[in-house]
């Protein structure tokens, strides 16, 4: 992939940098042990469309881009380490990625000296380290590249959903996550839930958008497989039971699990779970509660794991 660099540095005495708007979930990237199987899962089984393949500087396949809608996509990459969790990184869209880089630098967070420009997809971006080892990428789309020029294209009717509503992250310490996502970036809590007096799930919504991050809290050591399943994405649909019936009639790619039974979560929303051969979880959730009323937040003590 051809990369260009743009740079600007914060100089003492300049106007204090402001946080630019964060408007949506851009993409989520996963490593896979079997690229063909994973692509069959997302394309043949779930109905999405591959839009490009990107090679690394040595000419080896680096990324396969699978389109969700006109502003969201998945990046599927051959694994680097067979023992690692499957989530590579996740990205949120901002109105001004360079302003975001300067803002984080001003706040004392480690950021690269320059942003990267992706000529294939048409986006400027940079990565930073979020709490608990998560790789967070900020992106800004422009009028060039496949994202902008591909609007309205590669959106087959076979897609199970046209909305990727949230990315979920295994989170051992909610306070640390809150300091980064809420205090620094402006995300705000919209719901929390759990069982037996313990809070296990907390949703934080974008400050200038509808997409969310879900924190999956835990209080004991988790295996690589467990963390991989916790780090999931969610697609929204009108009728999850009807979708499940449709999926049961399709050929399931080898190594993938049969769709789970429909359950109603503590947020009063019906959902199912899918797992590909890597153990990557795809949550399918209805876009409304069972009774049409807003979900009721629960009370309790958030789970916390301190090694």
UniProtKB/TrEMBL annotation:
Matches recorded under PROSITE patterns: VOC (PS51819)
Record's keyword annotation contains Cell cycle? no
User: Single Gene Ontology BP term?
Assistant: L-methylmalonyl-CoA metabolic process
* Cross-referenced Pfam families: Glyoxalase
Metal-binding is among the record's keywords: yes
UniProt-recorded Gene Ontology molecular function terms: metal ion binding; methylmalonyl-CoA epimerase activity
* Alphabetical UniProt keywords: Metal-binding
Q: Where is the VOC domain?
A: 24-141, 163-287
Write down what this protein is called. VOC domain-containing protein
Biological source species:
termite gut metagenome
């Amino acid at each position: 992939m051809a990369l260009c660099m743009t740079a600007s540095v914060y100089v003492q005495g300049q106007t204090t940098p402001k946080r630019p708007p964060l408007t949506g979930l851009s993409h989520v990237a996963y490593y896979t042990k079997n690229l063909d199987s994973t692509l069959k899962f997302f394309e043949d089984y779930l109905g999405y469309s591959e839009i490009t393949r990107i090679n690394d500087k040595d000419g080896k396949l680096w990324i396969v881009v699978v389109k969700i809608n006109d502003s969201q996509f998945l990046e599927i990459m051959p694994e680097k380490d067979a023992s690692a969790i499957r989530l590579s990184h996740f990205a949120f869209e901002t109105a001004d990625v360079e302003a975001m880089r300067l803002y984080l630098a001003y706040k004392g967070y480690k950021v690269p000296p320059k942003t990267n420009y992706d000529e294939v997809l048409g986006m400027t971006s940079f990565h930073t380290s979020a709490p608990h080892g998560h790789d967070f990428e900020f992106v800004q789309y422009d009028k060039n590249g496949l994202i902008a020029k591909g609007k309205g294209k590669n959106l087959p009717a076979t897609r199970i959903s046209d909305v990727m509503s949230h990315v979920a992250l295994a989170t051992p310490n909610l306070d640390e996550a809150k300091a980064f996502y809420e205090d620094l970036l402006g995300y705000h809590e919209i719901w929390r839930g759990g069982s037996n007096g313990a809070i296990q799930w907390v949703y934080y919504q974008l400050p200038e958008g509808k997409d969310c991050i879900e924190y999956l809290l835990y209080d004991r050591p988790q295996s690589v497989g467990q963390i991989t399943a916790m780090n999931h994405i969610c697609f929204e649909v009108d009728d999850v039971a009807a979708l499940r019936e449709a999926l049961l009639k399709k050929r399931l790619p080898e190594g993938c699990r049969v769709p789970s039974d429909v359950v109603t979560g503590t947020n009063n929303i019906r959902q199912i779970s899918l797992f590909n051969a890597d153990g990557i979880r795809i949550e399918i959730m209805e876009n409304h509660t069972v009774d049409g009323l807003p979900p009721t937040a629960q009370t309790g003590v958030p789970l916390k794991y301190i090694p």
